[in-house]
Write a structure and sequence with these properties.
The chain is mainly beta. The protein has three domains: 145 residues, Immunoglobulin-like, CATH 2.60.40.420; 146 residues, Cupredoxins -  blue copper proteins (Immunoglobulin-like, Sandwich), CATH 2.60.40; 116 residues, Immunoglobulin-like (Sandwich), CATH 2.60.40. The chain has three helices and 31 strands. Strands 20, 21, 23, 25, 26, 27 and 29 form a seven-stranded mixed beta sheet that branches. Strands 10-9-12-17-14-15 form a six-stranded mixed beta sheet, with no helix packed on it. Strand 20 and strand 21 form a beta hairpin. The longest helix is centred in the N-terminal third of the chain and has 18 residues. The structure holds copper (II) ion (CU). Copper (II) ion binds next to loops. Copper (II) ion (CU) binds next to loops.
């Protein structure tokens, strides 16, 4: 874009805002319905941000207050949730916490101060129910990186040569059973393209590449491998881990992020893709191409591996904490899930004590794993399926079937905070409650 074009564009934005009596926002997200070509002959229509999927990669600076204009060009009320941000409830992007919706054909400005640093994201926070076009089934997702202030924009303490977002999504959902309980998908993408349809990730031998992987699927867990390479995991959900460690695969539930550095020392053309052949065939992969390498992208199935958050933690005696039990059970009365015996919207709020260490006890009595998410806070996993750990900080944690996971949080961000399963179909059918601060 030339300077003249920039000035012209700037002028029109200024004029539009002058009509509204406002100065231009730092970030503008315009929601509209548009066509996305995931691959040759594979075009879907969805609602997304700024006419692109994923939405724009947004880099914030920790502690620097920003204004975000959300312009809703659709006819439905919508909401942008800032996932992993410690910001107030009226801007967090959950109606249930008190953030005002952006009505159809309306706009709204949100002002907040991004923190803490790390790989975060933003996405729709709407109930979809049986409508598989809404909420996180749609194209409303994007990565947001909060950089530390005063480091010249290098958001990660580790040394790396390239910073590459890897954003997974599944498309064209349908009910795979007569009971409308199991959602399956016909298409998958990384960075908005099916495997082979987009630009490859271009690397050079000897480089250290930081992959920031985000699972933005509405309901599916994903496991990725890059044949010939391994992953040095340095952060989970954007938070530096206590003990960085090398693994052959990356495993992410909906909502989770993994930052991993890969040493590029196996020249060739590779498929960085889903371990599951069906999902990879549906498009879940991206080509990694070394400079000078030619040929068809190569895939090799990774060896079996047990993904375990505690690989990056430390065994440690935990200080005592205020216990907050959360019993997760299936229900047979139409609302599928219950927390402490009740399904949303009837769930009771649960309370934490301000200013101290509170221990959330996720007691999953169902026979299904759940990626549970807490808004506006980061928690530290302190016990995982019976084993003590520390130093792993997250905002989504997979609670395995018939298991208990304990996670501590310092209650330092008062106001209501939504707690829910990040599996959209579970959230929509009862698996949600509000966390409140005791007075
Ligand atoms: Cu769930």
């Amino acid at each position: 874009m030339t300077r003249r074009e920039l000035l012209r564009l700037g002028g029109s934005v200024l004029a539009a805002n002058a009509l509204q009596g406002a100065t231009p926002a730092d970030v503008t997200l315009t929601l509209s319905r548009f066509a996305v070509e995931l691959g040759p002959g594979k075009t879907i229509r969805t609602v997304g941000y700024n006419g692109q999927v994923p939405g724009p990669l947004i880099r914030f600076t920790e502690g620097k207050t920003v204004s975000v204009d959300v312009i809703n060009q659709t006819s439905e009320p919508e909401m942008v949730h800032w996932h992993g941000f410690h910001i107030p409830p009226d801007v967090d992007g959950a109606h249930e916490e008190g953030t005002p919706m952006v009505q159809g054909r309306d706009r709204r400005r949100y002002t907040f101060t991004p923190n803490p640093t790390g790989t975060r994201w933003y996405h729709a926070h709407a109930m979809a129910g049986h409508d598989l076009t809404k909420g996180t089934y749609s194209g409303q997702f994007g990565m947001a990186i909060i950089e530390p202030s005063g480091t010249g924009g290098q958001g990660n303490p580790a040394r790396f040569d390239q910073d590459v977002p890897i954003i997974l999504h599944d498309w064209d959902p349908f009910f795979s059973s007569d009971h409308e309980m199991d959602v399956d998908y016909r298409l998958s993408s990384i960075n908005g393209k099916m495997l082979g349809a987009g630009d490859p990730v271009r690397v050079k031998r000897g480089q250290r590449v930081l992959f920031r992987v985000l699972n933005a699927s509405a309901t599916l867990q994903h496991r990725l491998a890059l044949p010939g390479h391994s992953f040095d995991v340095i952060a989970l959900d954007g938070n530096a881990v206590a003990r960085p460690g090398r693994v052959p695969v990356l495993d992410l539930a909906p909502g989770e992020r993994v930052d991993a550095i890969v040493e590029m020392n196996a020249p060739g053309v590779w498929v960085f893709g889903e371990e599951d052949a069906k999902l990879r065939g549906a498009g879940c992969g991206i080509v990694v191409e070394y400079g000078g390498a030619v040929g068809k992208p190569q895939w090799a199935h990774p060896a079996p591996f047990t993904w375990d958050y505690m690989l990056w933690g430390q065994a440690a005696e935990q200080p005592s904490a205020n216990p907050v039990p959360l019993v997760i059970e299936p229900r047979s009365d139409g609302n599928l899930w219950a927390i402490n015996g009740k399904s949303y919207p009837k769930t009771d709020p649960f309370f934490v004590k301000p200013g101290i260490r509170n221990r959330l006890i996720f007691d999953n009595r169902s026979d299904m794993a759940h990626p549970v998410h807490l808004h506006r806070h980061t928690f530290e996993i302190t016990r995982y399926a019976g084993k003590p750990t520390s130093g792993v900080f997250k905002d989504v944690v997979v609670v395995p079937a018939k298991s208990v996971v304990e996670a501590d949080l310092m209650a330092m961000n008062p106001g209501p905070s939504l707690f829910h399963c990040h599996q959209q179909f579970h959230m929509d059918f009862g698996f949600m409650a509000l966390m409140q601060y005791e007075r």
